[in-house]
Each structure stands twice: as structure tokens, then as C-alpha cells.
Design brief:
single chain; alpha/beta; 7-stranded parallel sheet; 12 helices
Amino acid sequence: GLPKPLGGRKEFLIEPEKNAGNTHPDFIREVLMNEIGVDHPICNILSVAERAWKTERVVAEMRAQNDVLIEEFLEGNDDFYGLANVTMRDPEAAAAEIERVGDHDQIVGAFVFCGTRRQRPPGDAQYDVLYEALAEHDLTPTFHVTNFVSKAPFLQEYEKLMAWHAMAQSWSAQHAVTSLISEGTPAKFPELDFVILEGGVTWIPWAMARLNREHGQWRSEVPYLEKSPEEYLRDQFYFSTQPLEEFQDPQHMVDVLEIIGPDSLVFSTDYPHYDFDDPSAIDRYFQEFTEAEREQIFGGNAAAAYGLDV
């Protein structure tokens, strides 16, 4: 799981008396909306339930977390939206949960916490029942891809947190995307968009090119792919801007972002984690885009991905 040093904003953690009486929605309004300028936060609950041994407990916690999301965050906050938690440990239960909460006006997608030891990659056909439910309710699957210590033993071999954090996110994002593309999930569900959170972005051009090459060599193995992997990635996938990697020369990041293109990027903050991104801190990388393209990245693409009329 996530190492303990990777917590939230420290003043919220070590000075609880300073925040007495404030609720989590208060923090969202105070920092994310008033200070950072987010008009419509899309909220999720980062669950640790997937690490529980008993699947029945994971399913019970999934339902409880969605009740908390709706009752404590969404109700009374009409400008908030939410991602319903779903567990990949039990696809049938996950689909049933979408049936239970998927018609809520402020639920706009599903938060898929993939990568734990006891689950198949997200493109596996056993999850089609979940994708069918999401498509039926016009909800967007959103993949959080950082819980790979148990899935990838090589990550446990690192002695330094720096090494773990450098590798885990981008590696797990590539793992999820490769599974979804190679198993034909976007081809089976052309009405669905897919959002990849917290995987960084510099690996995306590599993945497009590498998957294109392999698709050309092994096309008979994936006859259901009617387009190139790059086309599926550009047409149905969005990638969050957080966390942006850092080159010595900032122009190199600009070059990478131009290859990916403004249609595929969605601004995200990862608030309240210590390394969350303020738009003012990353704005320098987007200066070469047009104003219309910048509006896409910082709001329009998310609205399109989640079907928001804002």
C-alpha cells in the first residue's frame, strides 16, 4: 500500500484543534475552490478496503463509502460531483452497486482502485459486467493506479521511497492501459470514456508508439481492435495532469504535452495530498496552447468526460 509518509496536508493532520468544527466539504471549499479556483470539484474516497482479506468486507466497505460520499459530500453541495467506489474483487457486486447509486444526479463516474494482488488487470472480461452497468448509467470509469506494491514485488525491493514513488505510478498506469487496450475494452464499449489518474504523462507517447508497433506485429491476436491503439487512446482516454514530471528544461515537458494533445488531458489536483498540483504551479507548461485548448485542459475535457453541463 501507500507508504505512511505520503499523507495529506500536514496542517490538517498535525493541528486538528485548528480545524475543529470544520467538515471535509469545508476544506474543499476553503482550499480547492476559494484558494485554487476549482468551480466544480469531482470528489472520491481513496479506499484502503481493497487490502482487506475478506471480499465480503471489501464489498460492505464499498457500499458504506458511497453512502458517506453521497450523504456527507454531495447532499447540500450542489456544485460538487462524485465518483462512486467500486471494487474489482467482486465484479457482480460492483455492477450491483452501480445499479444502487448510479442514478444519483451528482454521481458522474466510478472510482476503480485497480492493482491489488487478488484481482485481474482491468481489461479482463470478468469486468465486462461492470463496464456494461457503467455504460447503461452513462458513468465514466476512472482508474486510480498507485496501489501496486502487492501486485508488483519488484517495487518492494527498493530501499528508498524516492525510487518506489518514481516507478509505481507510471508503471501501474501502463499496466492498466495495456490491459484495457489489448483486451479490447474500449472497442467493446465505444460509448465509454476512460480516465487514468495519477500516472504521470511522459510515458503516454511511448505507450502509444509501443502499442502501435506490437499491434502491427500481433494483429491476428487482437482482431477485435478495429483501430490502432493510439486511436483508441486519443479517442476514449483521458489522462490527469497530476503528477506532472519535471525535466531540467521545461520546454521538454511542453513538447511531451503537445504530442499527447490538449484533447486527452484533464486537470486534477490530488488534493489534499502533500504533492497536490495548484494550477498556477503547472500553468507554465501550457502557455503554448491556445486559450481554447487551455480551457479544455483545465475544465472542458473533464466536463466532456463526465457529461457535466457546466
